[in-house]
Amino acid sequence: MKSDSWHGRISLTFFLLTVVLALFSWIASVYGVGEVQSLLSAEGIRWMLGHVVENYVHAPALGIVLVLFMGMGIGIRAGLYGALKRFCRKEKQLSRKERRALVASVVTLALYMVLVGVALLLPWNFLYSVTGSWNHSPFAKGLVYILSVGIGLSGMVYGYVSDVFRGWKDVVGGMSLLISRSASYFVTLFFVVQFFSSFIYTGFPACFSMSEGVVDALFQLFCYLPLFMFGGKRVHHTRVRK
Prior knowledge:
By secondary structure, this protein is mostly helical. Among the domains are: 66-181, no CATH class; 183-227. The protein has helices at residues 2-30, 42-57, 60-78, 80-89, 96-121, 138-141, 143-161, 168-181, 183-202, 204-207, 212-224. The two termini are 34 Å apart. Residues 238-242 have low confidence and may be disordered.
């Protein structure tokens, strides 16, 4: 697939960049350039071995993408997004069962949003932080999960009403659909995370007068950018019984 080819190139690019970074960090440390730490020193190797898994698991993009993909995958597996596309473009008339399922999914999503809105307006709001603000509040930390649940619920309703889903295994299959289709992205993310983690460890950002904000912005950009390079893979779902 074209997307896999792109992700292969990006993964290789960041792997080579990490190798080059290791060599330059060693040269810079030998010549005493700033406070650069060598990745090829005993301390640098210990750091890499001790943080390679931790850095990847703690990458914000990993959890966000996984949780969103689980909710979105249900809608794709159920055929909800395909129905919405056909309805908006008027490419093909929806069957009676598809129209009923589409209405039910939209109503479900609307009710879910109202429920979340009511929860936000409650006087004893448990979604605020202990200080009464939105900063570091349960709502802010769980926003991605809240969105994923809403998307997933609407997809489940469409799937069951349209008879595409017959049991829980279909829901689980939908939750894993996008994750399996985007496996190459998670490989790419691994190499991106390792490069930026190593870059920060070496101390090169300070040598180049790069602020933490700039480095973090670049890190976030390259974590999410590969998501837009997926090709259009067709998703097959169970035929609707009319």
